[in-house]
Task: structure prediction
Amino acid sequence: KNEVEQSPQNLTAQEGEFITINCSYSVGISALHWLQQHPGGGIVSLFMLSSGKKKHGRLIATINIQEKHSSLHITASHPRDSAVYICAVPFNTDKLIFGTGTRLQVFP
Amino acid sequence: NAGVMQNPRHLVRRRGQEARLRCSPVKGHSHVYWYRQLPEEGLKFMVYLQKENIIDESGMPKERFSAEFPKEGPSILRIQQVVRGDSAAYFCASSPRRQGGNEQFFGPGTRLTVL
Result:
């Protein structure tokens, strides 16, 4: 069993739809990261959170430490949101363990 | 402030050659992590270094791979006698101190192709 599980693996949406990506983890953590990887491969850190909720523009991340679960929401999705979204948790020496990613495609 | 810099961005090597990947962390960051992303796979941890020290190399293949982060200059990931299976994107990330809640800043990656 992977320490970090994401769902769904693939997601397609029409522009304007509300998107939810889920992440469950099995290890105790100090914080959880949400990352975005665009075609062409660069990785951008979207959020790091250890409790509650964070919002940045149309992106919202929530975490429930007791249930070991986090969600990434995108409101009013846009084709430029098309990317792979990855959750990651620090483990042991604080190296990150990554989920397999959710490939999102938003169509106009 | 410059972010994490990696070079080269693309590297092509023939089987048996050596590959040297460089990572300059964010100024003031003393913690560097190397991750590898094989084609169609997720990111995997390779090695964690602080200045002049390897802290955790549990993700490094036992042979041909080495990493360093000298007192001066960039961190180097070195792959000797490359094989086709080494073809991947190699990312480094830096952090100002041991994470425990600190963000890691990622470089743009080096895409290694072994012919």
